[in-house]
């Protein structure tokens, strides 16, 4: 009887557990039926995801272009390689194979194209099969492939091999205003993100918004008849137009590269500005970098705006401007040069030459006398009044230029010795952009302009201009009359027999107003460095001198000089090369007799002339253009009629029957001009000069044809 009771108890317990489990399961099903959720997951959404093919439509990152619309930064289409290794992706292998069936053949085919060993590719494919993966990728070698590589792989007709189209940021001009434009690169999420320069500063404008496309599919990724396709259009990033002029910037980069190679300076900066508007037309630094091929970057910073320096004697132009404005500057008054001592300082202020004796203040400025400037500040203006002018020229604050990481210099002005040394550019520091901004007041009738680089931002989706900048007067530290007198004094630095700029900064076609500078370099606790090369050599120049259309400020730190060479040699080369060609390019009327050996003239009207007549006229001016094709009519050229043909130009004429030229030895700039004329779909790698091209010379050209070019130094 006892055993029977025990058995019933156990049976009842098991039955109770079964009923409880049954009720729980039924309740769970009922809950799922009502809510449609399991552990917080919406089953309908999960099912839709499982049977929905979703892909992003990438937005184009905004272009960065120069003031004339020339592309300086753009997206370049690249490809990422992947291989499907799941044999289930081929439901009917007898009729069609959709996966990688022959691992060895596939590895041998794609390995040499992507720069890998066949064994390594095979290992990746085999590992994917062994692990039951659906697809595999090939790391860095399988990403950022060019269209040429993609087409080579596609020509092999290997099943299961596919590509994902992506974008890479590309800079057509290589080393070109690199610290201004900046750098954008693809991150781990395959998104292009700005890192430095304009690319970083305007990343929110440039980035854009990706779109998407989704549709229902079967397990073999085949689109269903009733697919519920949904398309969300991508919104391309905003396009940014800079004040930079591609032609002037290219001339500047060429000059900077030449000086860098010849003199190997520690640092260089150069800036070209329109003094009437404050627009930066060109800006360059050395060391620089090629954003398409970084290598080891020595200098990420834009020293023009980020690195304060002691400016040296270029500041003397602003010192005499203050004295003229106050009416205390008499250019014909004489003083004893050599040294100047006041009771408040231990050691006297000295000139770099002790043998001038009694000279006028005008001659003191031409000779770059430190004593002249010290006496003006101490005896005539007074240190407090001079400080007011330094602040009026905004040497105590950033310029507000629309570039990242701007740093202002520091006015060291507490003690009498600092007040004197500041008058001739020692002790206190400024950035090159501060000097350029202050100089606009001298060149622009006393009105000081705010420098800027961003000209316009446009929404390409609507054509709307979302930002447009206009010239802005930010101060008027001196009058027009004072500005005119300072320009004459600066011109005399170039024309006077005793001027520090004589025979070094003269231009062929234009008068120049300028001021040289030779700044000592601080050696820390040991004071200033000594030696022939241990200076920052600089020049502040404007032309034409009576009404400047361009200002240039150049600094070259510690160039390697021969004993017979001057620090002005590398500086003057940059100034003369850029200023002369830049003014001619802008069609500024020469204001002095030109040297007959200098060659340039206006481009004839090739739109109306016959080919033979045009070539004949060019030959009369000793110009031999590159003629593209064998047609009888010129239909396009890289220089518009009426524009100046500079000595730096490679003249390209396109005929009505274009054929491919031999590009060997061409520069990036020249190739860019050619492909725009020919309307080719252009892609390149490397830097320097052309070493190979995908379209052979003399082949017939058609608009839209793909051209791949490799450059080597």
TrEMBL record:
Enzyme Commission identifier(s) = 3.4.16.4
Reactions catalysed, semicolon-separated, are: Preferential cleavage: (Ac)2-L-Lys-D-Ala-|-D-Ala. Also transpeptidation of peptidyl-alanyl moieties that are N-acyl substituents of D-alanine
What pathway does the annotation place this protein in?
Answer: Cell wall biogenesis; peptidoglycan biosynthesis
Q: Which UniProt keywords apply?
A: Membrane, Transmembrane, Transmembrane helix
Gene Ontology CC: plasma membrane
Pfam families recorded:
PASTA, PBP_dimer, Transpeptidase
At the top level of its lineage, which domain of life is listed?
A: Bacteria
Give the EC class as a word. Answer: hydrolase
Q: Which residues form the PASTA domain?
A: 597-657, 659-713
Kindly indicate whether the keyword Transmembrane helix belongs to this entry.
yes
Alphabetical GO biological process terms: cell wall organization; peptidoglycan biosynthetic process
Q: List residues traversing the bilayer.
A: 12-31
Q: Which SUPFAM superfamilies match?
A: beta-lactamase/transpeptidase-like, Penicillin binding protein dimerisation domain, Penicillin-binding protein 2x (pbp-2x), c-terminal domain
GO MF annotation list = penicillin binding; serine-type D-Ala-D-Ala carboxypeptidase activity
Q: Give the location in the cell.
A: Membrane
Q: Does the keyword Transmembrane helix apply?
A: yes
Q: Which family does it belong to?
A: Belongs to the transpeptidase family.
Full protein name: serine-type D-Ala-D-Ala carboxypeptidase
- Organism name: Amphibacillus xylanus (strain ATCC 51415 / DSM 6626 / JCM 7361 / LMG 17667 / NBRC 15112 / Ep01)
């Amino acid at each position: 009887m006892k055993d029977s009771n025990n058995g019933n108890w156990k049976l009842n317990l098991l039955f109770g557990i079964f009923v409880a489990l049954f009720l729980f399961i039924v309740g769970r099903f009922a809950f799922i039926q009502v809510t449609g959720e399991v552990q917080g997951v919406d089953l309908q959404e999960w099912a839709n995801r499982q049977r929905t093919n979703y892909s992003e439509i990438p937005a184009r990152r905004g272009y960065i272009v120069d003031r004339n619309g020339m592309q300086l930064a753009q997206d370049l289409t690249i490809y990422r390689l992947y291989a499907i290794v799941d044999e289930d992706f081929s439901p009917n292998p007898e009729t069609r194979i959709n996966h990688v069936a022959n691992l060895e053949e596939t590895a041998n085919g794609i390995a040499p194209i992507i720069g890998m060993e066949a064994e390594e590719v095979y290992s990746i494919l085999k590992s994917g099969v062994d692990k039951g993966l659906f697809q595999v990728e090939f790391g860095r070698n399988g990403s950022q492939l060019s269209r040429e590589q993609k087409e080579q792989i596609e020509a092999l007709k290997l099943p299961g091999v596919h590509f994902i189209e992506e974008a890479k940021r590309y800079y057509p001009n290589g080393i070109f205003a690199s610290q201004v434009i900046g750098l954008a690169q693809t991150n781990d999420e395959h998104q292009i993100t700005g890192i430095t320069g304009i690319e970083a500063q305007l990343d929110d404008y440039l980035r854009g918004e990706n779109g998407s496309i989704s549709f229902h599919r079967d397990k073999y990724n085949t689109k269903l008849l009733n697919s519920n396709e949904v398309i969300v259009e991508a919104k391309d990033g905003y396009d940014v137009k800079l004040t930079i002029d591609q032609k002037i910037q290219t001339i500047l980069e060429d000059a900077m590269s030449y000086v860098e190679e010849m003199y190997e300076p520690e640092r260089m900066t150069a800036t070209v500005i329109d003094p009437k508007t404050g627009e930066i037309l060109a800006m360059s630094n050395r060391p620089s970098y090629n954003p398409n091929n970084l290598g080891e970057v020595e200098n990420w910073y834009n020293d023009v705006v980020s690195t304060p320096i002691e400016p040296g004697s270029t500041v003397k132009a602003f010192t005499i401007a203050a004295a003229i404005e106050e009416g205390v500057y008499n250019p014909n008054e004489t003083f004893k040069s050599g040294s100047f001592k006041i009771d408040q300082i231990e050691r006297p202020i000295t000139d770099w030459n002790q043998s001038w004796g009694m000279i006028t203040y005008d001659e003191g400025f031409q000779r770059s006398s430190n004593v002249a400037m010290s006496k003006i500040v101490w005896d005539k203006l007074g240190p407090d009044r001079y400080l007011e002018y330094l602040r009026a020229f905004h040497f105590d604050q950033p310029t507000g230029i629309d570039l990242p990481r701007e740093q202002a210099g520091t006015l060291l002005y507490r003690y009498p010795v600092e007040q004197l040394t500041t008058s001739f550019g020692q002790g206190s520091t400024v950035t090159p952009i501060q000097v350029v901004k202050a100089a606009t007041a001298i060149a622009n009738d006393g009105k000081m302009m705010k420098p800027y680089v961003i000209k316009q931002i446009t929404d390409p989706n609507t054509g709307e201009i979302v930002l447009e900048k206009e010239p802005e007067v930010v101060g008027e530290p001196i009058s027009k009359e004072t500005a005119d007198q300072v320009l004459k004094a600066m011109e005399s630095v170039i024309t006077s027999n005793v001027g520090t700029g004589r025979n070094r900064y003269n231009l062929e076609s234009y008068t120049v107003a300028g001021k040289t500078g030779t700044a000592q370099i601080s050696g820390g606790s040991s004071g200033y460095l000594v030696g022939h090369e241990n200076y920052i050599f600089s020049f502040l120049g404007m032309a034409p001198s009576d009404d400047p259309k361009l200002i240039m400020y150049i600094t070259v730190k510690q160039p390697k000089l021969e004993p017979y060479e001057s620090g002005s040699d590398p500086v003057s080369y940059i100034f003369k090369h850029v200023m002369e060609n830049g003014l001619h390019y802008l069609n500024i009327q020469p204001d002095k007799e030109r040297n007959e050996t200098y060659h340039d003239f206006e481009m004839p009207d090739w739109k109306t002339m016959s080919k033979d007549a045009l070539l004949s006229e060019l030959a009369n001016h000793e110009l031999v253009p590159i003629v593209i094709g064998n047609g009888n009519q010129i239909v396009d050229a890289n220089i518009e009629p009426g524009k100046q043909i500079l000595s730096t130009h490679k003249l390209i004429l396109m005929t009505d029957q274009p054929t491919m030229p031999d590009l060997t030895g061409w520069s990036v700039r020249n190739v860019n001009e050619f492909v725009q004329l020919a309307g080719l779909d252009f892609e390149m790698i490397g830097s320097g000069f052309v070493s190979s091209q995908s379209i052979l010379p003399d082949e017939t050209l058609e608009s839209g044809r793909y051209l791949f070019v490799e450059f080597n130094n």
